């Protein structure tokens, strides 16, 4: 089969293609930068190389913490050559860390390319260390390696590792909603208030802010994904009996309304109550979006595959800001989770799953879009060629979900265009 052939997708009007080739995306270690802020008593210990340490340091460099909750246990040449017992060294590092930081309740051993190369079994190490430090500290493991994960898949792997730790809800438990995906605390609080106003009594978030607050899960749990990159987490939650609520993602006013409405319908919230509760947020978002529409309307946007947020972002840019979509790349396309987004994209939208970097760069250069959304590595060369770019990583570091952040989301895209307009003047 031709690797670039469009796949027939009669259920959407989009033209979906798959590409394979050289990729330019961050590895899953990057997720630690936002996850360590979210789970307040967790610590992320990357078992990796100096390269891994540099990646995290520079990705997190924008926010300096007095006591960061992540570090790297460096695998050096002796470990790689099999001259030292890596497990013994790891145990020593963990013991020192836990003695120094008694506030840690949950420790993640995060695998990397080097730990995979030497086949260090971190799952087994986590079980051994849990036995040693239980009950004060639980030790879990997941992989953030660039061989296995891209950028946002680190969060997916981390949350999936938490699921076996969740207790089983009683069969008679009241129906509950579990919102899945790390959201900034301010956004989580806004959504918690909206769900309470809608009359949903049992609402929990994964990840919880503290390690000991993991909610129970069972057949009466409905899960609502807050992020589009949580395929594995959703799979293991469903395997525990939970049911996923199909919904668009809460980016922009329309996405937020669709997302809340899907939850409201699943819990039989009357339409009148839904309208009343969401009207103020919708009105605030409409005012905020108006401020940026002129800058984005009619602008041609090219999205490189990076964060897996590309489809919801493209839907927002096109439907709420009037932008034209040249190409929408995504590292992976989960057709079930993204079905409500695919249905909202304009007919004929070119979606490219995977990456063949050179071919994609050629298409981007040929199209000369007004705005290119891409990873850090591509932004500088494209800027040097005269194209305006937006770093996709910013969309993970900035609170962008919900009604009150819709204006900020639009501004993130409007800003590079404004800057370029000033430079041209
Ligand atoms: Fe590089 Fe792999 Fe370490 Fe990521 S995990 S920083 S890709 S060596």
From TrEMBL:
Residue numbers binding [4Fe-4S] cluster: 27, 52, 113
InterPro entries: LIPOR_BchN/ChlN, Nase/OxRdtase_comp1, Protochl_reductN
Protein keywords: 4Fe-4S, ATP-binding, Bacteriochlorophyll biosynthesis, Chlorophyll biosynthesis, Iron, Iron-sulfur, Metal-binding, Nucleotide-binding, Oxidoreductase, Photosynthesis
Cofactor remark: Binds 1 [4Fe-4S] cluster per heterodimer. The cluster is bound at the heterodimer interface by residues from both subunits.
Domain Nitrogenase/oxidoreductase component: 27-416
One Pfam family here: Oxidored_nitro
Pathway where it operates: Porphyrin-containing compound metabolism; bacteriochlorophyll biosynthesis (light-independent)
Cofactor requirements of the protein: [4Fe-4S] cluster
Catalytic reactions of this protein: chlorophyllide a + oxidized 2[4Fe-4S]-[ferredoxin] + 2 ADP + 2 phosphate = protochlorophyllide a + reduced 2[4Fe-4S]-[ferredoxin] + 2 ATP + 2 H2O
EC number: 1.3.7.7
UniProt family annotation: Belongs to the BchN/ChlN family.
Complex and partners: Protochlorophyllide reductase is composed of three subunits; BchL, BchN and BchB. Forms a heterotetramer of two BchB and two BchN subunits.
UniProt function note: Component of the dark-operative protochlorophyllide reductase (DPOR) that uses Mg-ATP and reduced ferredoxin to reduce ring D of protochlorophyllide (Pchlide) to form chlorophyllide a (Chlide). This reaction is light-independent. The NB-protein (BchN-BchB) is the catalytic component of the complex.
Name of this chain's protein: Light-independent protochlorophyllide reductase subunit N
Organism: Methylobacterium jeotgali
């Amino acid at each position: 089969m031709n690797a670039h052939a469009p796949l027939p997708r009669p259920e959407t009007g989009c033209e979906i293609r798959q590409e394979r080739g050289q990729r330019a995306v961050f590895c899953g270690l990057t997720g630690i930068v936002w996850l360590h802020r979210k789970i307040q008593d967790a610590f992320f210990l990357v078992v990796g190389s100096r390269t891994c340490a540099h990646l995290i340091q520079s990705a997190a460099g924008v926010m300096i913490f007095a006591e960061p909750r992540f570090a790297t246990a460096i695998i050096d040449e002796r470990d790689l050559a099999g001259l030292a017992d890596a497990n013994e060294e790891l145990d020593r590092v963990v013991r020192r860390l836990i003695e120094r930081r008694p506030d840690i309740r949950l420790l993640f051993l995060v695998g990397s390319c080097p730990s995979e190369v030497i086949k260090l079994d971190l799952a087994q190490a986590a079980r051994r260390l849990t036995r040693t430090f239980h009950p004060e500290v639980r030790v879990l493991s997941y992989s953030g390696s660039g061989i296995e994960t891209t950028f946002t898949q680190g969060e997916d792997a981390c949350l999936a590792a938490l699921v076996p730790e969740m207790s089983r809800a009683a069969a008679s438990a009241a129906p509950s909603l579990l919102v899945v995906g790390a959201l900034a605390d301010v956004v989580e609080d806004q959504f918690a208030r909206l769900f309470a106003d809608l009359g949903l009594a049992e609402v929990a978030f994964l990840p919880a802010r503290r390690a000991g607050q993991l909610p129970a899960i069972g057949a009466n749990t409905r899960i609502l994904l807050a992020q589009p990159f949580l395929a594995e987490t959703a799979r293991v939650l469903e395997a525990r009996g939970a049911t996923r609520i199909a919904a668009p993602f809460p980016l922009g006013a329309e996405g937020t309304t669709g997302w809340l409405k899907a939850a409201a319908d699943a819990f039989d919230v009357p339409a009148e109550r839904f309208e009343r509760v969401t009207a103020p947020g919708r009105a605030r978002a409409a005012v905020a979006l108006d401020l940026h529409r002129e800058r984005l309307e009619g602008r041609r946007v090219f999205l490189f595959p990076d964060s897996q947020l590309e489809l919801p972002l493209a839907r927002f840019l096109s439907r709420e800001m009037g932008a034209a979509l040249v190409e929408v790349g995504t590292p992976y396309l989960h057709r079930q989770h993204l079905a409500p987004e695919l249905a909202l994209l304009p007919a004929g939208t070119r979606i490219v799953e995977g990456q063949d970097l050179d071919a994609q760069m050629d298409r981007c250069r040929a199209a000369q879009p007004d705005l290119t959304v891409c990873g850090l590595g591509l932004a500088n060369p494209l800027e040097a060629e005269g194209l305006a770019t937006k770093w996709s990583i910013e969309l993970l570091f900035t609170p962008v979900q919900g009604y009150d952040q819709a204006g900020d989301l639009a501004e993130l895209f409007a800003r590079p265009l404004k800057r370029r307009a000033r430079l041209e003047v």
